[in-house]
Amino acid sequence: MRFDLLALSAFAPLVAAHGAVTSYIIGGTTYPGYEGFSPANSPKTIQFQWPNYDPTMTVSDAKMRCNGGTSAQLSATVQAGSNVTAVWKQWTHEQGPVQVWLFKCPGAFGSSCKGDGKGWFKIDEMGMWGGKLNSANWGTALIVKNLKWSSEIPRNLAPGNYLIRHELLALHQANTPQFYAECAQIVVQGSGSAVPPSDYLYSIPTYAPQNDPGVTVDIYSSKATTYTPPGGRVWSGFQF
């Protein structure tokens, strides 16, 4: 019995260390997200339902896209130029980037909008600053502190149905990246017409190779003084 208790106590911190987006704040309204450990009690939500808090370990895993979620019952309206704020109930890893992506649906939400194909584009990111990888100068350290992240929807983005994807990449284990990503359904309103050019578009999974230096990195032994998050550049909404 003592062995079992010791084993459970050793396992508990690993579970507690994981996290996921559990709600969104859009236009002053809070939209509950999914509660993976109590699916029977989860309300209808704008978020793709995910099965657990466990990380995705490889860039080619299908869970890279939306943590295994494929559909949601609701959507939230957001005005182009306003913010979407994702909220976490728990997060403990200070080393790693935060990235926020959008995907424009070809039509209505549902079976025709699961994020398939080369249509994902990045609207926000924060990697590392201060020149030291083994530090708390990372985007995810701000999640530890605030348990929320706000991103502006590009002001001149073309209106329509979109998926928004929040991704935390934890780099605290050497050469063992851990991805945590969730998706939600939003309806962007506005008079804009801008769409990202093709060189800003990516497929998820596999937006970067596993050996990308922004994915597989040893923050303890590396001498690097800069860090570039994987997945290309942020598109701010300018029409080219």
UniProtKB/TrEMBL annotation:
Keyword Secreted: yes
Source species taxonomy: Eukaryota, Fungi, Dikarya, Ascomycota, Pezizomycotina
GO MF annotations, alphabetized: hydrolase activity; metal ion binding; monooxygenase activity
GO biological process terms, semicolon-separated: cellulose catabolic process
Cofactor: Cu(2+)
Domain of life: Eukaryota
Reaction equations catalysed: [(1->4)-beta-D-glucosyl]n+m + reduced acceptor + O2 = 4-dehydro-beta-D-glucosyl-[(1->4)-beta-D-glucosyl]n-1 + [(1->4)-beta-D-glucosyl]m + acceptor + H2O
EC number: 1.14.99.56
Record protein name field: lytic cellulose monooxygenase (C4-dehydrogenating)
Alphabetical list of Gene3D superfamilies matching this protein: 2.70.50.70
Domain Auxiliary Activity family 9 catalytic: 18-227
Signal peptide range in chain numbering: 1-17
GO cellular component: extracellular region
